[in-house]
Predict the structure.
Amino acid sequence: MSGSVPTEDPLVRMYRDLKRAMAKDISQVKWAMVIDQAKCIGCHACAVACASENRLGPGVVYRPVMEQETGTYPNVGRRFLPRPCMQCENPPCVSVCPVTATYKNAQGVTVVDYNRCIGCRYCLTACPYGARCSDFGGFYTSKTAEEPGLVQGRYTARAYEQQNAPEYAKSWGQRGKGSPVGNARKCHFCLHRLEVGQLPSCVTSCVGRATYFGDRTDPGSLVSELMGSARAYTLKAELGTKPNVHYLA
């Protein structure tokens, strides 16, 4: 077999990295993500997996995949940019929150305390990456057809949408009956999955293996290795926000 062909799925190595990180003093772990644009095929599987995992309603998108046309006809192409929260080291969204509902946790992830959030949306305006959304409590099934015995629509299928969001490993109750409806929401690196030894849903669902995740303080982790690549860059580095989501050009 050629030496250029991977002999191991990157997911296997990332799970080893995750197990090693979770065995450490968790306050010493700093999570980071790397996205290889050369491998992203724009399938949006990560966005769908994220919406399903976190029970995101209409208009709430943690991981949009931006698309750009390149070249000049007839020599044209497309490239893709998945854009989760950058988990900045200097996050502008934190300082503008009037009730300190959003803050950085010990692992460097910017989180939202839904019990404190008043839905003022200052953080939405402050984020230079547009990575936050307001949850207005909508349902995808609101205007779908319903016919007993024939079509499972807005009444029957809604039960799935009303399931409890698992974010932050807390029970938020049936969707529509309180938080996170009415709150600002954002990507949180699937902290509830990390706690049980699982990688974020966007990582495991990526069919092109374009998304990498791990502890950036571990020099042996895959993300640490990739962050040192000559291809690595961050979005809007000139703002001084110091993102912990890195891209490979």
